[in-house]
Design brief:
Layout lengths: L1 H17 L9 H16 L6 E2 L2 E2 L6 H13 L4 H27 L2 H12 L2 H7 L5 H19 L6 H18 L2 H18 L8 H25 L1 H18 L17 H10 L4
Antiparallel strand pairs: 1-2
Length: about 280
């Protein structure tokens, strides 16, 4: 049954994410990624990333590196090829979710339905068909969470799984900073601690510490190198970003309430599920 579910899940992912991939117009976030990737190939700006030949250090470079590799293979004007890394990332995200759910609930059908809900959520469909940073960060973090769960559920110290979890967590940070730490990792850790009462935490303390050190090392290496080699540009960009987020991008406290609709049609059922115990 597991193989059957995997095949159906793959078919759904191919229909959702691969078909008509080059139809949607290029949005502003994609355009910045594509331009930076093109300048990586043209001017070899792989570390000191640029946008229109000006330093662009606001975003970590891993998704842009992957886009540049796709650009090298498929050409600079092949939109289908440039979006393929994001498509691969979202499919990996869905299958990692399926594997995690099979370990948690021990039920392939439950995991299959859960993964279908994830794959057909609006935010996932949108991000998976655009060459942006978010889907890479979430995909790497989901793999990390899967390995963390396997580590915590084992009675013996699991250095291999823990270090692999730290490696993928570092790749997530190198994709979009701490965004996925807040969005996926912390909710998972809080939920695990609440449900399992910290079971496995203390047995895996040393592997966990090593994993976190590895994750922070990988995630911060580019930023540290950039600061050492181009401190003036880093300070200029940091000042500009600080000014923007403290003035121009200030939002009201209820601004993010509409984010639940990013689940698309599933937001209706999610709200019913949350309200059901009180009905």
């Amino acid at each position: 049954m597991s193989r059957k579910h995997l095949l159906w899940l793959l078919l759904v992912c191919l229909i959702l994410f691969v078909s008509n991939l080059d139809v949607l117009y290029v949005n502003i976030m994609e355009a910045r990624n594509f331009i930076t990737a093109r300048e990586m190939l043209t001017h070899s700006n792989w570390i000191h990333t640029t946008l229109n030949l000006e330093p662009r250090y606001e975003k970590p470079p891993l998704p842009t590196w992957l886009t540049a590799m796709a650009m090298w293979v498929f050409g600079k004007n092949n939109l289908y090829g440039l979006r393929l890394p994001a498509v691969i990332s979202v499919i990996v995200l869905v299958f990692a979710s399926f594997k995690l759910m099979t370990l948690i609930v021990k039920n392939n059908y439950h995991a299959f339905v859960s993964s279908l809900v994830l794959a057909t959520s609006f935010y996932i469909v949108f991000s998976g068909r655009n060459a942006q940073w978010d889907i890479f960060a979430h995909s790497f973090m989901m793999i990390s969470i899967l390995l963390i769960y396997k580590t915590l559920k084992n009675d013996l110290p699991q250095y291999q799984n823990a270090l692999l979890a730290g490696f993928f967590m570092g790749l997530s940070i190198l994709s979009k900073g701490p965004v996925s730490l807040y969005a996926l990792f912390l909710p998972f850790i809080f939920s695990y601690a609440y449900i399992y009462r910290f079971k496995g935490f203390y047995k895996q303390l040393k592997p966990t510490i090593l994993a976190l050190i590895l994750a922070l090392t990988i995630g911060s290496c580019w930023a540290i190198y950039i600061y050492i080699t181009d401190a003036h540009s880093v300070r200029t960009i940091a000042a500009k970003e600080t000014l923007a987020w403290s003035n121009r991008n200030v939002r009201s406290w209820y601004y993010y309430w509409n984010f639940f609709i990013q689940s698309g049609m599933w937001s209706v059922f999610a709200l019913i599920g949350l309200l059901y115990p009180f009905m």
